[in-house]
Amino acid sequence: MSPLLKDFLNKRIVVVTTDGQCVKAVLEGFDKSTNLLLSDVQDRVSGDVVASSYLMRGNQVVCCGLLEEEPSLQPDFGAESVITQLKDTKNIVPDEHLIWQRVWGMKAGK
Amino acid sequence: MLFFSFFKTLVDQEVTVELKNDIELKGTLKSVDQFLNLKLDNISCSNESKYPHLSSVRNIFIRGSTVRYVYLNKNMVDTNLLQDAARREAMSARK
Amino acid sequence: MSFFGFDTSLPNQGKGAGREKRTATPDKPLDFDETYQGLGEYENEEDDYLNNETFGNATDLGTDFDFGYGNGEINNGAVPTAAQVDHGRSYASAATTGPAVTNTGYAAAAPHSMDEGMDFTPMESLWTNQPMMMHHPQQPQHPQVLSMEELERQQQQQQVGVSHGQQQAYMGMPPMPPMGYGYAPQAFMPQAQVMPGAAYPSAPQGMPPQGLALPPQGMPPQSMPPPGMAPPQYQQHTLAMQQQPGAHQQAAHLAPSVVSPLAQQELQQSPHLVQKAAHPASAAVSDFATPSPPHLINSKSAQGQPRLGSPSQMAPSSQDSRESTPRGTRRGSMRKHQEPLSQDDFKRLQVRQAKVDKILRHSGVMTPRDKDFITRYQLSQIVTDDPYNEDFYFQVYKIIQRGGIVGESNKGLIARAYLEHSGHRLGGRYKRADVALQRMQSQVEKAVTVAKERPQKNRENFDGAKEGVLGKISSAKNSKAPRRQLQIPQQRDEDEDISSSAIEDVVESLNGVDISSSSRARRRSSYAFRSVDQRAVLSRSGGRKFVLSLIETVYAEVLDLEALLRSGKETDSTHLWESLHIADDAYEVSPFISILSFDKGVKIMPRIFNFLSKEQKLKLLYCFFSELSHLNIIVTSSYKTNPDPSDSQLKKIELFQSVFLKIIVSFLSSSAEFLEVLGLLLALVKNNNVSFISTSKIGLNLVTVLISRAALIKQDVSRGSVLSTVEASSWNEIYDKLFTALETKLAAVFPPEEYTSRVVVTSSNGTPTSATVGQSSGHQFYDQSYIWQFLASLALSGKLNHQRVIIDEIREEIFGTISRAEQLVKNVPAEEQQIALYQRDKLYQDLNLFLNVMGLVARDGEISELK
After folding, report:
1. Which of C284, C195, C285, C276 is nearest to C240 (CA)?
2. What is the DSSP letter of C861?
3. Searching chain C, which residue's CA lies closest to the CA of residue B94?
4. Could you tell me which CATH number the domain at A3-71+87-109 has?
5. Structural domain span for residue B73
6. For C337-353, what is each residue's pLDDT tens digit?
7. What is the mean pLDDT of residues A8-29?
8. Shortest CA distance to C246 belongs to which of C160, C178, C177, C175?
């Protein structure tokens, strides 16, 4: 088993997911494919409680960082301005079909 | 195993990791595993003002599958040796 | 997966009111459709294949899989409180439940089929004894022991059942893992049993599916009472009786055949089971008997409401028990078990169950197989026959980085190969690649120094010659010999020369290297090309693809040999030698020459030389010098064929110098005999257009290396032992031959102004190379030292008349250099004086290397006699 996450066990961590979500939680367990068992899951920005216990599939995980702030302290963002939503990792080009349509159109034109 | 081997030589060096969600993290590579999951220490996020989510995080685990690029300093790589290692791996795969 | 209401499609919904609400009411059944959305988008992970192995893949779960396992419409009076374990169950258990439900037709009856309080938590008791102890029965039981025949019969039945069941009852069940894992195929049975058992009282229509689950126990479905015929209570009882014993027997039987320690443990505890089974916790006991992590705990039983039969019903096969036990007895025994549960017991059980829940909370997240897999993986990381093989880059890199060879020589060997013999370490990153050139230069300088010390017996004659040629030498004796007295060596017939006896001796000394036939035939098409286009050469040696594949073969051979070297075994260079195709006559140009057209081909050469014998090295060099005109690098570095060298071409030249020239120099100076040097020189002169080669920097370097080495050996010999007449005459002949080829074209070794300025521009724009010198990047100038080295070594070995010819031909260059040096200092502003002075000194230094050979020295714009 990858020992990389061992140091984070039973600690508060920040998890960024592939769909751009960011939560903080306590890492209860993990396995070699980075499936994470989390407890006390809160939204990183709003602090809302998301779940008391959650099993996150490994392929949803982008990264998890060890949270070093005081648990009571809320990060200073979110108060006045709108936080940029994290991007997902899929990098889907919007309306890609239109682009291809045009490409094919140009090819046909030639 | 070649790139696992390769990344192990980068341990304790400073690298910049660009993730597929455009976050760029610069930090000291602390460890790597066979999935090329990375662990960085003392990270700074180069676009932190845009993505403050990782403020107050110094030590981070990155899942290998979500890494887009790892930026290295040129002198961290011994290209000739790397070529040899690649040849060896290709040879052992052929056998 | 969203087991707990964590909505994975969060970003689409904004942040979480909905989620919170759901979390707040965990008892509310979840609509799977809500949470499932988007999950299908996740691409398969490469490790997902294990899921199939672990969880089974025979049945597609579909989107209607009910993770809430029913809406809790339980009418049997059970109070689902204590065992409400809704977290901590592994998805493994959930997944295995899925197929069972679907398969047994419970999809339709799902709302009724399962108890909400049912616990899917895998049992710790599978691996340890403790949880089992927590379910201690409180009633004395009558042990029932199976006879040997019974055991055998049941085993047979069960085997039949399994084979049939693959199509019938087990349809949709996960594929069975091979023996040796913690659980046997039968592991899945109890689930099918417990579920119907739990659901039965309220769902008699669930009968047929239960029947399906029965065959493995030898109970044909048709023997079941039709639904509704028997009172529910009775039916339940019967079923329980039919199923439980079967499960138990299977577990008990299979244990011996399963080699895992778990199974053995199980076996040892089997008597316990039999004795203590008839307790409210009988379901848990059956759990225990089932070495499967995907497991079920029946909450009702934990609450002290037994629904299963007495041990007497559990132990024997269903048919036996049916024959031997009247129905009434069975029913009675069941009631009897319900009675003794007092309120206290009930509470105690609840507490116990809560404790168990706590313990089991996260257990089973990793199955034993996961753990086993990981352990094996870790072991495979640690234990490897050859860490260099598995982890080559890391190991070697670390040794190199440590800056030296630490530890055993064995480890050091390969690192040394990289450190010392490969060009990239010498050139490449940190240093400029002029080590080889320095070495060559020192060789020439050494020879010149020796020449300077030579007693100048014919000094007068010598001076006269110089004077005549150079015009104004401030020598004591003036204009003794007019210029027309210069002796020009007579032109001789070429072929006659080559076939002379002295040459034959040289050839012989090359250990049978075959000068004749093939290589002669090959050379005919040689030096006719006038372009940098290397494709022409490549196509004549088998084509680009062929050559590239050759290089890779060579690499493979070298890597193999290096691996042998590391492990301390004998190395055999035969294969390597063959892969070089040096003696290959099938191609017009030797493929070996084309190998050197590629950087990687050049880079591997030092490592090849580590393994070749001296004889092989000689042959290799012989081939190399014979076909020098075909060498891509010669064409590239000649100002005639490539008047405008690019940055990358200059780098190529640099690489060749630092790598291949270096090994030639070191081979010649360390192990080559005089005659062997002569042989190589002969090969060069005889097979190539020397005047063309001398227009290229590399070519000139190579010639210089050969003749300066020969001169050095000759000097050494003349001091110590005697040079044999054969050797002396061979040398004279070959030198004459070389000189003849160069005569009248000596001035052409100096590249024209346009070429040198181009090189300066290119290399100051790109990476600095040894082609130019200068103290700062802004004041680079073309380094001509290699030319003067060549001329010096040529003059060194020549007789007086040779020297005269040389001086005569390059007189312009000598004076040109002197005046350039003087101009430099005059015309520069004061602040650049320093740079100009350096440049001037460098020019004089190079020039004097040549002039010193003839006892002259140039300084301050004048040529004077060397004191």
Report:
1. C195
2. T
3. C556
4. 2.30.30.100
5. 2-94
6. 555 667 888 888 988 88
7. 92
8. C160
Q: Which of C185, C197, C202, C227 is nearest to C74 (CA)?
A: C202
Number of domains composing chain B: 1
Chains adjacent to C (≥3 CB pairs closer than 8 angstroms): A, B
Q: Is C30 exposed, middle or buried (0-12, 13-18, 19+ CB in 10 A)?
A: middle
Spatial neighbors of C5 by CB under 8 A, at least 6 apart, are A51, C19, C22, C23, C26, C30, C35
Q: Which DSSP letter does residue C747 get?
A: G
Strands B67-71, B14-19: pairing is antiparallel
> Per-residue pLDDT averaged across C319-329, rounded?
44
- Distance, in Å, from the CA atom of C190 to the CA atom of C198, rounded to the nearest integer, reads 12
Q: In angstroms, rounded to a whole number, what is the distance separating the alpha carbons of residues C791 and C461?
A: 21
Q: What tens digit of pLDDT does each residue of C792-805 get?
A: 988 888 888 888 88
The string of pLDDT tens digits covering residues B44-89 is 988 777 788 888 899 999 999 999 999 999 989 988 889 888 888 8
> Is the ipTM here above 0.90?
no
Domain-wise residue ranges, chain A: 3-71+87-109
CATH assignment of the domain containing B12: 2.30.30.100
Degrees to nearest 5, angle at CA C152 with C151 and C156: 120
Which residues of chain A from 5 to 34 reach within 8 Å of chain B, CB to CB?
5, 7-8, 14, 16, 18, 20, 22, 32, 34
| A72 contacts chain B (CB < 8 A) | no
- All residues of chain C having their beta carbon less than 8 Å from the beta carbon of residue B5 are 390-395
| Paired tokens of C538 | 């490549």
Nearest to C56 by CA among C97, C87, C89, C114: C97
Nearest chain A Cα distance for residue B74, angstroms: 26
Cβ separation C91–A57 shorter than 8 A = no
**Residue C806 vs residue C867, higher pLDDT:** C806
Tell me if chain B has a CB within 8 Å of the CB of C4: no
What are the CA-CA distances from residue C247 to residues C161, C276, C846 (Å)? 12, 15, 98
Look-up of token digits 């591997």: C604
Residue C453 to residue C762: CA distance in whole angstroms? 41
Hey, what amino acid is at C419?
L
Size of interface B-C (CB pairs under 8 A): 54
CA nearest to B81 within chain C: C393
Alpha helices (H) in C391-499, listed in sequence order: 392-401, 409-416, 423-426, 435-453, 459-470, 494-498
